[in-house]
Hints:
mainly alpha; de novo design (two linked rop proteins); 4 helices
Amino acid sequence: MAERINNYKALRVYQNALDAAMKVFELSKSFPKEEKYSLVDQMRRSSRSVCSNIAEAWRKRRYEGAFVSKLSDAETEACETQVWIEFAWRCKYVSELEVKALDGAYDHILAQLVTMIDSPRKWLVHAKK
């Protein structure tokens, strides 16, 4: 029998997104000061937004459309984070190895989100009669 998930923190996609956001945070600490208000803030904001949108989606499980919409927002933020990671690599702030690891992590997160978006009904809260 599958393990019952009682809150968003137990979702593997949330755990993966949180781990990836923390890696983004750690990596971005070493970026040049002139990137603080552009690249660093954007990368950190979008990576953290993946997590917050997953949490918000969890609380909207009574309404399929709202649930899917918040998961879609998380998907968009994950993809945006990949763009910022590519900029960091092209600016030579991160190594190719670090980029591949983070990009792969976000590809996995995106796949998890798409799976949930494609089958939302099993995640919804159903009213008790």
